[in-house]
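Example for reference:
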Amino acid sequence: MKPTYPTSPRRLLTTAALLSGALLSITAWADDSAQPARQTGELPNIVFILADDLGYGDLGCFGQQQIRTPHLDQLAREGMRLTSFYAGSTVCAPSRCTLMTGLHTGHCLVRGNRRVNLRPEDLTVAEVLKQAGYTTALCGKWGLGQENTTGLPTRQGFDFFYGYLDQGHAHNYYPTYLIKNEARVSLPNVVPNEGRMGRGVASKKVAYSHDLIMEEALQFVERSHQQPFFLYLALTIPHANNEAKEKGMEVPTLGEYADRDWPEPEKGRAAMISYMDDDIGRLLAQLDELGVADDTVVIFSSDNGPHSEGGSKREFFNSAGIYRGGKRHLYEGGVRVPTIVRWPGVVKPGSQSDHPGAFWDFLPTAAEIAGVEAPEDIDGLSFLPTLQGKVQPQHPYLYWEFHEYGKIQSLRFGRWKALRGLGKRVLLYDLAVDPREENEIAHLEPEVVARAEAYFEEARGPSEEWPWRYKK
């Protein structure tokens, strides 16, 4: 039955038996050598690391040849690459809304990059995990609620928050303030003509926001590791500071790329990605040092496809891999994102899955890992069976809509990818033979087009913020 969103009241969770706090028994992986997963006295920690505007092809383990990402490559060797995993949208705020609420952009509250605040009745994955006894933190970029509103992270299930509330404020890597819980924390940077939302370009660059966010994340893990914790580490790298224009790839040092024969913005892009990778390495090392790496599910992904902003062009490093488009497109390059999951004893090292999943699957997956029931009226499906190497239930389709370049809808169902603009005909591609979406074949597959049209109508619920009436 289709979810009744966004107008339904806050859903009530039914807590499943936690077997006296023990981790539910699950199979490590489905092959002849499968062993029962370890049993512990605690539920596993969950760390979700989200990069910002990182493309499918920006990591070595997903084909990148020029940018160094050794720690994420190692994470992939120790875990599973999800090669058909999708962001919630092709821009920031709606993508993050789907991740947090388990609803795709046909049903979630925030369907575009406008500033809309989550409401008390909106249920987040942080609230779900708190019911299972997790301590929760968000370090980084939120984008789902402004100051003094119901959308603040600390009013949406997070025990601790440090970073940016506003996605525009997050453009600037040297801001004059960040938010800690619900209060501003002043920084020594100077930003002339700073806009109302904190946008701008610093004339005095002292404190790099990414460094501050990482330190707060590491401190949270240090003080919380003796009990189950959920860390949502929503990094801003490698997003550009759009207000800085051709100098928007803000990073403290170009490092090993300083002497490359590349345009300066491309040196900055590469340096930002390697800078991020090094800090993820610090976090992974900390989990080892604290003795909780084996008790922690680590998920890495990106909020949408690669940008062409800040003077950098996504084509320079082939950042979308083999796929067409990037940020602000609903072609594969705009929504298919590099995703890695490591869970020692459960996820088979060096494995790969082409299961088509998406951000709205994270909430039910986290709920199943935590031993609580996910709400019924969501769009997500748990992909825990995929991580275990078991038979995975499939979505009938994955759905996206985009509002900034006109009203555009997109679907993935089986091998098929469909797109249509408001009042326009359906475009159809066969991803099995045409992953770059170069050969439009709607005229050859009328029955498939009819299925797509029915899915488009079914997938979209009403929205006051983003009204949409499709007319043939």
Summary: The CA atoms of residues 408 and 421 lie 4 Å apart. The two ends are 26 Å apart (CA to CA).
